[in-house]
Amino acid sequence: MPPVMFLALIGAAGIAGYRIVSNLLEGSKSSGRKQANGMRRATAPARDLGKLEWDEDAGVYRPSPKRER
Question: Which domain of life is it from (predicted)?
């Protein structure tokens, strides 16, 4: 009877180890996808904002308001 219990214990440990490793690999895949999506966003083409005007209060350039013709 002890050899059967020993084999059952080894089997249970093997299944638990397999689940842990598969979860770790799945986590690394999803983090890789997140990084790839971030790189795609970072390298996206710049938008054309039209004519910019200097905003003295904020100290930055802002798009000029659209004027009706």
Answer: Bacteria
